[in-house]
């Protein structure tokens, strides 16, 4: 499955807050709404403000995003495929539950196994079950067997989350899939503020690992596909991440501390990790070293 890694490099500077204008307040209100359709452009520029322990999203578009599951928009349910409207509504709710279990669960973020998320996957889907066994047992996963493709984890001895809030923005859509299944597509960006493990000082360095995932889930008709109640099959999954590691996969996000405020190198391929107006770009691939990683133009 496709995956692309990005190396973060962004300049920040302290500054005083200013009173927002009426237009700015309207923009902020719209930014706070949950995303109901694909945006047409990237979020506007933010003031160059460095994150702090009390305000880890300071200076980032994510400061205006919703917290946790609230940032994932679920559309109205209509009868689709083999499901009546009420069943589609339940499938959408369970799809969002999977994203929460895979990207927001506090124990998982501290490096534990994604037990809750795995319980929602069809145990009869052989290729996914093989991926899970390999991804979660290997000490040296490959790009195709990296658990980060689906699950967000940090090594507690390397990095820790700042506070208990992860900002999100994204949405679910659905359509009729193969054999009458209800196919749900999730496109969600997660923003994790982290600091070096053991650094709890007032001036601790804070960086943000930004993760965008697109996961296509199939809620199959049990008359057509062998499945178990309350579980779904995975059709595809893609990952795009900033400041999560640029070397060979380890199965954990590896934020690169000490470089968050360096200027991008001249000629470096730069991307905006907050730009959700374009599909996930998998053309760059991932290299075994950091040399091939693109550079994020902001955090």
Give a structural overview.
- The structure is a single chain.
- This protein is α/β, with parallel strands linked by helices.
- The chain has one domain.
- Helices cover 17% and strands 22% of the residues.
- The chain contains five helices and ten strands; from the N terminus they run βαββααααβββββββ.
- Strands 1, 2, 3, 4, 5, 6, 7, 8, 9 and 10 form a ten-stranded mixed beta sheet that branches.
- Strand 5 and strand 6 form a beta hairpin.
- It is globular, with a radius of gyration of 19 Å.
- The two termini are 25 Å apart.
| Residue fraction in strands | 15-25%
Q: Decide which structural class fits the backbone.
A: alpha/beta
Contiguous runs where pLDDT drops below 50 for at least 5 residues? 5-18, 284-292
How many strands, what sense, and barrel or not for the largest sheet? Answer: 10 strands, mixed
- What is the total number of structural domains? 1
Helix proportion of residues, in percent? 10-25%
Instruction: Give the overall average pLDDT.
Output: 85
Approximate shape: globular
Estimated radius of gyration: 19 Å
Helical run tally: 5
